[in-house]
Amino acid sequence: xxxxxxxxxxxxxxxxxxxxxxxxxxxxxxxxxxxxxxxxxxxxxxxxxxxxxxxxxxxxxxxxxxxxxxxxxxxxxxxxxxxxxxxxxxxxxxxxxxxxxxxxxxxxxxxxxxxxxxxxxxxxxxxxxxxxxxxxxxxxxxxxxxxxxxxxxxxxxxxxxxxxxxxxxxxxxxxxxxxxxxxxxxxxxxxxxxxxxxxxxxxxxxxxxxxxxxxxxxxxxxxxxxxxxxxxxxxxxxxxxxxxxxxxxxxxxxxxxxxxxxxxxxxxxxxxxxxxxxxxxxxxxxxxxxxxxxxxxxxxxxxxxxxxxxx
Length: 311
Known about the structure:
About 40% of the residues lie in helices and about 20% in strands. It is α+β, with helices and mostly antiparallel strands. The protein is globular, with a radius of gyration of 19 Å.
């Protein structure tokens, strides 16, 4: 998963398949035996391989993803009951959710300060990206829109993408290197002029930045439905989805402000809440076509209708 030289592409491919399977079935039981079968390993060997490549056991990984999804729910749907959140995030009951939550975060979910947690993670992310003593990525206050961002709701069809996944994606040149390798792969197969995407599976305001996963991806032609994973290049199908779209032109801090505006100002007024799909960077042309400092992209925030309070 980290694309280190000693890890074979076959292992990367198998682990990509496992992570995609876990993400698609996070609300369902995920036994070690069943997931190991998905990877084509025995449970014993899979347990060791998974831990060595991702730095946590399958149980820890699944629990972390479920808890992070629950934190996202608490952030954007504060009126939802803990029972609703627990069941929607793959826990068997609210008591199971509360036990797991307290074991990881030290307090029950009812006593957890989500805003304080997000602020602390944002500070750690800002220092990792921009260094200490800087303020380029300070939170944009609610209602503030100094860049004049505008969002519109769009309906997108199902898409199949080829991707290279990057773990600890804020490492220098990690994402750019993934795009470079994927562009070479796509050009060799005639896909290089397709729509290029980037998407972060994790919210760096919730997840430690070193665990954030980013996929560099290109949308495949509809005729390529039978294309299989190829070494470190995985294949993933996204369902049809509703997105809020915001055009972005500028440096990385402009993109950061756009994300803040979408979540803190546009989203609460939109009648939507975030869905369980990642946010997408939709490149205008090829990735980094305008250099590494200036970006011309659209941000796609996948959303779904908000559930009325009390239902």
